[in-house]
Design a protein that fits this description.
Blueprint (H helix, E strand, L loop, with lengths): L4 E3 L4 H10 L9 E6 L4 E6 L3 E4 L17 H10 L2 E6 L5 E9 L12 H17 L5 E13 L2 E12 L4 E11 L2 E9 L2 H4 L2
Parallel strand pairs: 1-7
Antiparallel strand pairs: 2-3, 4-5, 5-6, 6-10, 7-8, 8-9, 9-10
Length: 197
């Protein structure tokens, strides 16, 4: 089976990926910088995005905009899901989430695998993603590929989710293993257009 490999240019998630892999990367002139020592992660986020982290405090004026009662609710939810950063557009039309965790000793960094090993691991990853089920959602994987970004392989999936209430969410997710950590970056939107930025 031949896998699609593609060099990509820019979407908001790729700005984060570039900043993570290359700490000296400068995305845009006015960026906010974040450092997450627990997962060996540094990144820059465009200033125009609203950001939440596991240490978000009650004085964040945007808590109500995302439907949170207080900062503890946000912190606990993010910690439980290994989410280190969530960034929203000001109109809440799309959301970027950065998830990280220590990789198990049996999991190799993706850039250390040969093409056959990478292809095999990609197929296992796709099988595990297809096996996930969420109550109240019908999910369809509409795209998948191994993308090379800054010479590092990422497993990309695109999923359309329809809730029982007939609300549709489009998600593009990037997965990689680097420096002994699993990193997942996802972009979610109610419109396909936001994913193509």
């Amino acid at each position: 089976m031949k896998l699609s490999r593609k060099k990509l240019t820019f979407i908001p998630v790729l700005v984060l990926i570039s900043a993570i892999i290359f700490p000296s990367f400068t995305a845009l002139a006015a960026d906010a910088s974040y450092k997450f020592s627990a997962i060996d992660l540094k990144l820059k986020v465009p200033e125009e995005l609203i950001c939440f982290t596991q240490t978000t405090t009650g004085n964040n004026a945007y808590l109500k905009d995302i439907g949170a009662q207080d900062a503890n609710e946000v912190q606990n939810s993010m910690k439980a899901s290994n989410i280190y950063l969530e960034a929203f557009s000001k109109d809440i039309s799309y959301e970027i989430a950065v998830v990280g965790m220590k990789a198990g000793s049996s999991l190799s960094n993706l850039d250390e695998l040969d093409e056959n090993q990478l292809s095999g691991m990609f197929l296992q990853y796709i099988d595990s993603e297809n096996a996930k089920q969420e109550d109240g959602l019908t999910e369809t994987m509409t795209g998948k590929a191994i993308d090379i970004i800054n010479d590092r392989p990422y497993f990309r999936t695109e999923v359309t989710s329809v809730s029982d209430e007939k609300q549709t969410i489009y998600t593009r997710k990037y997965y990689t293993v680097a420096r002994g950590y699993i990193y997942m970056y996802s972009l979610q939107s109610r419109t396909m257009k936001s994913l193509m930025r």
